[in-house]
Amino acid sequence: MQAIAPPSQSFIRTTRPRLAPFRLASIQCVYRSDSVNFPNGVGLSRADWQSSCAILTSKVVSKEQPTEKPGSGTGSEGSADHIAAVNGHKTIDLNLVPIMDKNKTDLAAADINNNRPQAKPLTITDLSPAPMHGSQLRVAYQGVPGAYSEAAAGKAYPNCEAIPCDQFEVAFQAVELWIADRAVLPIENSLGGSIHRNYDLLLRHRLHIVGEVQLPVHHCLLALPGVRKEYLTRVISHPQALAQCELTLTKLGLNVAREAVDDTAGAAEYVAANNLRDTAAIASARAAGLYGMNILADGIQDDSSNVTRFVMLAREPIIPRTDRPFKTSIVFAHDKGTSVLFKVLSAFAFRNISLTKIESRPHRNRPIRLVDDANVGTAKHFEYMFYVDFEASMADVRAQNALAEVQEFTSFLRVLGSYPMDMTPWCPSGGD
């Protein structure tokens, strides 16, 4: 990968509090020439420096960089004398010292006198290598602490370092920019159906599905201490949470307005932060403890069989196996519309491969297909991308042959991931 050099003595930091969700929009560049220490080219902490470099990379990656010539001493081969180990990986040492050049000795000497060292080029391995040997995984999720996505991240990766993000796309970017090692994001709910936004982001980004986790959802009605249900005029939460509790709210006799916010725990945080005594939030029992709220009603979901399926995303795919149940997710499209769908499904049916999910999403690049007929005029058909999950590993010959046949019928085919199925015993939600 091409090396990228950051501007000297310019650092990037976030302006939000420590527990606040990570926001790309809240990043700013700050000049810090007086208070930053550089032991071995690292800033105040290696994590801060790595995150800063990753964010910097996202802003300059589109700019063309000159190609290093072999043997020049500035490329990866020329820097073999500066190898260091981070988390078990060999990486380029970040000693921010002037790079001596035979033709620029005077200039380098002047930089030393002026205390303006030149930064060595960074590589992707300098930003944030994947943890090894039991190191703590950094897992991005959408929401704030107390969100169901945080609980799913903890179930998928126990003892992980959960990184809150304010948007789904920011969680994708956190993994792509090496700020996080994994992302755990919801993909479908047993009551609310598919989370279409994440299906679209799976196609837009190049991350791989490496696992799944199913989390029972247990909603609670939360309010500030001392507030009673008859005082409420408004209930806020995520749109799906509001829909999943609609009947129960009516049975409780609550004549309140429903307002949607970005996530459930964020609703609890908002009520607590603004001391809203006429507003309740629908969130988890853990969110009530985190934000100092009382539980007015427990288990208010309309159906106890309320389960959300999350997918685990990584930069690299895992090696498929056949010694345990696996699931594979694909997406495909065809230039001639949906008539190919039957042939694709037949490729799996003939090989006794069970499909667990099929989802269609509009083809953003070609939303409408026009078919001209001299006798009847012009017909308009919507174009779709199809997402399919099936129960087989890519190491299974049946799956390989099925996809080979599917490829003959489609103009676009991509394997999103082949990963172990969540086989944990299921039981109705009954609290956290």
TrEMBL record:
- List where in the cell it is found: Plastid, Chloroplast stroma
Give a yes or no for keyword Repressor in this entry.
Answer: no
Q: Which SUPFAM superfamilies match?
A: ACT-like, Periplasmic binding protein-like II
Q: Where is this region: Disordered?
A: 61-81
Entry GO CC: chloroplast stroma
Q: What is its main location?
A: plastid
Q: Which residues form the Prephenate dehydratase domain?
A: 138-315
Identify the Gene3D superfamilies for this entry: 3.30.70.260, Periplasmic binding protein-like II
One Gene Ontology term of the biological-process aspect is: L-phenylalanine biosynthetic process
**Residues forming coiled coils:** none
EC number(s) of the enzyme?
Answer: 4.2.1.91
Functionally, this protein is described as follows: Converts the prephenate produced from the shikimate-chorismate pathway into phenylalanine.
- Descriptive protein name: Arogenate dehydratase
